[in-house]
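User: tokens in, sequence out, please.
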């Protein structure tokens, strides 16, 4: 403990020496900052008789502390890391290749964590402080950041960073990872092109955002798409006529808060072909259902849920967060606005799978009626890897949009009728393990 404290004091002293030599009257480029760091570290290294590798490490850490994200920079540059969790001074945890683990490094001080937080939040014009201690933001590369400060966070400043790949994961890559079957991908491709409205549901970390990105590949390129998010993270590249809207918190120069509800209302005046809402969590669900029922076919969104059936209950509850409406009226909005629910899950081997595709067929005795179309069924395990089959369990009932799009003749008819089952092949699991 004393050694760590001494290292912290030494590091802070070197940082102050560098900052004392920086000309604050102008913008100092990275190259000049690197030269200042080199001079200070070389001088310190001669006094303390530091080895070459120690001096190199010190130079790197000082540059990251002064110009990057301090100790987190190393993790932000590592491709295999998908989640970074800073629990104040109690430690840094990460998810690497689907496994949670503790990192051996930590911040030198609580003050440095706060500096890094302000650097992250300030870059996207957001505010976080004791009076507004919770905030969502994004890094320059698109990674999502969630911050909670004391006194809400009891054990110190908390940072959670959800990292995304530099290039979006395509549907082909999801097929390679056995996340879904080719038949399911073909069905969803035709459903998107035909204008079916799709809600992607699942638990935390089940891959909802990734799947929405992949699904957006199938949107026809000549359409106008409005994307609405709390924090911009979707990477839609197949649409040229794309408008991206992001919410704004209050507190920035006395600015009024702009919510997802506000953005959904505004988007209806922008002549959208489709509206994509990154995620619904509360009262904005009513606006989403409204726009799904006003002719904007083919719109997408995501929500947290424990099952396909639970998704309906979640939507009902979220609508009631914003206004008192009869439950029957809410269910009719759901039944008429949402065509398909895609339910994703994260299995015990940490793999992410499409578990169910379900059609919302309408109302029956005041209940929303669901028609399961595809289902993932486990068949066993090989070397810790879950094996299973994606079965087609039902036929599409509301096929009018398929018919209008011309997907009901020839081979396309198999997309919405007939039954099939992907044969369980143990080699699938063996290939996945290898």
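Assistant: Sequence out:
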């Amino acid at each position: 403990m004393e050694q760590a404290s001494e290292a912290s004091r030494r590091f802070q002293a070197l940082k102050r020496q560098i900052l004392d030599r920086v000309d604050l009257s102008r913008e100092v480029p990275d190259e000049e900052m690197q030269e200042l760091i080199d001079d200070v570290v070389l001088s310190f290294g001669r006094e303390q008789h530091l080895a070459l590798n120690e001096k190199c490490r010190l130079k790197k850490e000082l540059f990251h502390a002064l110009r990057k994200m301090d100790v987190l920079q190393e993790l932000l540059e590592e491709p295999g890391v998908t989640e970074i969790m800073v629990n104040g001074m109690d430690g840094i945890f990460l998810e690497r290749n689907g496994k949670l683990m503790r990192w051996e490094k930590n911040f030198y001080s609580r003050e440095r964590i706060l500096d890094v937080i302000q650097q992250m939040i300030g870059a996207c014009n957001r505010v976080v402080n004791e009076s507004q201690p919770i905030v969502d933001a994004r890094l320059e590369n698109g990674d999502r950041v969630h911050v909670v400060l004391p006194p809400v966070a009891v054990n110190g400043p908390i940072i959670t960073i959800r990292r995304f790949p530099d290039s979006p994961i395509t549907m082909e890559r999801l097929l390679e990872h056995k996340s879904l079957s080719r038949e399911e991908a073909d069905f969803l491709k035709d459903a998107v092109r035909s204008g079916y409205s799709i809600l992607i549901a699942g638990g935390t970390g089940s891959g909802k955002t990734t799947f929405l990105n992949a699904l957006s590949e199938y949107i026809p390129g000549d359409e106008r798409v409005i994307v609405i998010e709390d924090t911009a993270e979707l990477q839609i590249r197949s649409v040229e006529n794309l408008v991206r809207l992001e919410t704004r918190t209050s507190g920035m120069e006395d600015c009024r808060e702009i919510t997802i509800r506000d953005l959904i209302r505004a988007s209806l005046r922008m002549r959208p072909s489709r509206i994509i809402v990154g995620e619904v969590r509360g009262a904005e669900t009513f606006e989403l259902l409204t726009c799904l029922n006003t002719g904007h076919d083919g719109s997408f969104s995501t929500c947290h849920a424990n099952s396909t059936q639970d998704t309906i209950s979640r939507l009902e509850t979220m609508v009631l967060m914003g206004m008192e409406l009869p439950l029957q009226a809410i269910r009719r909005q759901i039944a008429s606005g949402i065509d398909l629910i895609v339910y994703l899950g994260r299995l015990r081997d940490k793999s992410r799978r499409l578990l169910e595709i379900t059609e919302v067929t309408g109302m029956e005795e005041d209940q929303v009626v669901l028609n399961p179309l595809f289902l993932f069924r486990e068949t066993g395990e090989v070397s810790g890897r879950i094996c299973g089959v994606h079965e087609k369990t039902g036929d599409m009932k509301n096929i009018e949009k398929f018919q209008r799009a011309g997907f009901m003749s020839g081979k396309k008819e198999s997309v919405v009728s007939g039954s099939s089952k992907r044969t369980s092949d143990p080699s699938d699991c063996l290939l996945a393990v290898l």
